[in-house]
């Protein structure tokens, strides 16, 4: 059976460079900055080797992967099998299987079927205790495909230790350099060696509990030796000309009582649920201001606007105040998300409102050049991913990121994000 495909689009040089890097070292991680076309790089590897491909992605990106294969290769739609889609079926002619992390347990047999395994948004595999991570590790270690391609522009989303699982995955390949598991048998050992261990005592129901976290970065040069022959990352500014990306902080005056968070060190000892409730309340309190602000942008530019929130309730509030708008949250069906994005890109919508968690990856919103954060995630990479929905290949206009800020919790988050991002930039 001939599983060859041909590319119908010419890769950029940085994409071709990664295809050749993968051909040489076999099991690799593409950490290119969001918006640089990692999908085409991965598809190019499949074309280069001429084998069968298994794609594992977040569920909401399965149909996007199908569309990308149809867009960038001469594959027939009947040759793509999507696990869980009742309209497709596996045949002897199938060249590409697409499944999701949530269906990995049902898809284990396909690891042995595939010559090339692609893990999209590979930071989904950062937690070694999660079932999807254990299933993926087991699948690739037992099947040992000819190629493994991990894709993530945010391999470290919050802490250096998040890199351990991905490096351990790549260590199964004998031809791509030093193995992280030779020296660091556990994630805790890895975290202690490459991060600063912080011990805090917190009060839980009248009892003092010791809390250990790992922050910052140390032994940076040694860490980089484990990236060699496995990891390639390029920044947008170094490989492609995109329009400028401008950031603006928009001060909003609104009444919300979150003064208890003014002492940031005290905040670190509080329960996360309590903090998130305050954060959500602050986001809801300024949602009406964000609605008016988005309207003003549209009236001035006559161009569609994207609005993000880290919480569902503000999304509903903002979307209800905007005409010709749609919203995407975690409960939006996958096929509906694809239709909403298509309508936005084609000019049928003036506003798209979404939660960061549901729409910050895998979609292109280049019809807009203005993106408004009603409120932001604590995780720097999530905010960066969201910003890159408009600032990516295909964008021809200067992009503007507007960050609504006015409460104590807003300023606290900004301070935390700046500190975390400095560490993440060093690692990546």
Describe the structure.
The chain is of the alpha/beta class and 428 residues long. The chain has 18 helices and 15 strands. It has helices at residues 13-25, 38-49, 62-72, 109-113, 131-143, 163-170, 180-183, 187-194, 220-225, 236-239, 264-268, 272-285, 287-301, 312-320, 334-345, 356-359, 380-387, 408-427, and strands spanning 27-30, 53-57, 80-82, 96-100, 116-119, 147-151, 196-204, 207-215, 231-232, 245-251, 305-309, 325-328, 351-355, 370-373, 399-405. A seven-stranded parallel β-sheet has the order 3-4-2-5-6-1-9. A six-stranded parallel β-sheet has the order 10-15-14-11-13-12, with helices on both faces. Strands 7-8 form a two-stranded antiparallel sheet. The protein is globular, with a radius of gyration of 22 Å.
Strand content: 15-25%
According to CATH, the fold-level topology of the largest domain is Rossmann fold
CATH architecture of the largest domain: 3-Layer(aba) Sandwich
Note the main sheet.
Answer: 7 strands, parallel
- Based on helices, strands and strand pairing, what is the structural class? alpha/beta
Query: At the fourth CATH level, what is the homologous superfamily of the largest domain?
Result: Tandem AAA-ATPase domain
Give the distance, in angstroms, between the N- and C-terminal Cα atoms: 40 Å
> How many separate helices?
18
Which word captures the global form? globular
Mean pLDDT: 86
Overall number of strands = 15
Oligomerization status of the protein chains: single chain
Query: What ranges have pLDDT less than 50 throughout 5 or more consecutive residues?
Result: 261-265, 267-271
- The CATH class of the largest domain is identified as Alpha Beta
What is the count of structural domains?
2
Strand order of the largest sheet: 3-4-2-5-6-1-9
**Radius of gyration over all CA atoms, rounded:** 22 Å
Helix content: 25-40%
């Amino acid at each position: 059976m001939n599983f060859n495909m041909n590319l119908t689009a010419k890769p950029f040089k940085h994409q071709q460079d990664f295809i050749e890097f993968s051909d040489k070292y076999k099991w690799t991680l593409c950490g290119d900055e969001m918006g640089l076309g990692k999908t085409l790089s991965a598809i190019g590897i499949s074309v280069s080797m001429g084998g069968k491909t298994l794609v594992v992605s977040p569920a909401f990106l399965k149909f996007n992967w199908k569309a990308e294969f149809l867009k960038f290769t001469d594959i027939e739609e009947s040759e793509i099998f999507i696990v869980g889609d009742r309209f497709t079926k596996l045949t002897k002619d199938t060249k590409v299987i697409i499944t999701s992390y949530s269906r990995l347990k049902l898809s284990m047999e396909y690891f042995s079927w595939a010559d090339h395994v692609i893990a999209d948004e590979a930071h989904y595999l950062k937690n070694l205790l999660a079932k999807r991570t254990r299933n993926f590790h087991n699948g690739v270690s037992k099947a040992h495909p000819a190629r493994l391609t991990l894709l993530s522009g945010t391999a470290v989303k919050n802490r250096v230790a998040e890199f351990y699982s991905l490096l351990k995955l790549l260590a199964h390949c004998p031809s791509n350099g030093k193995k992280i598991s030779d020296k660091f048998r556990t994630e805790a050992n890895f975290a202690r060696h490459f991060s600063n261990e912080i011990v805090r005592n917190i009060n839980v129901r009248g009892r003092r509990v010791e809390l250990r976290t790992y922050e910052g970065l140390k032994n940076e040069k040694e860490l980089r030796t484990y990236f060699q022959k496995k990891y390639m990352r390029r920044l947008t500014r170094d490989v492609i000309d995109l329009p400028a990306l401008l950031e603006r902080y928009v001060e909003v005056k609104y009444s919300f009582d979150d003064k208890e968070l003014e002492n940031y060190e005290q905040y670190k000892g509080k329960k996360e649920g309590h903090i998130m409730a305050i954060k959500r309340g602050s986001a809801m309190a300024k949602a009406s201001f964000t609605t008016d602000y988005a309207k003003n942008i549209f009236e001035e530019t006559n161009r569609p606007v994207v609005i993000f929130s880290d919480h569902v309730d503000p999304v509903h509030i903002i979307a209800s105040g905007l005409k010709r708008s749609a919203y995407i949250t975690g409960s939006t069906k996958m096929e509906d998300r694809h239709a909403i994005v298509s309508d936005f890109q084609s000019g049928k919508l003036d506003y798209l409102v979404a939660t960061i968690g549901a729409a910050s990856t895998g979609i292109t919103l280049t019809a807009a050049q203005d993106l408004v954060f009603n409120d932001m995630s604590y995780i720097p990479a999530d905010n960066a991913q969201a910003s890159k929905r408009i600032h990516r290949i295909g964008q021809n206009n200067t992009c503007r990121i507007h960050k609504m800020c006015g409460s104590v919790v807003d300023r606290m988050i900004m301070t935390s994000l700046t500190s975390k991002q400095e560490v993440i930039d060093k690692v990546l």
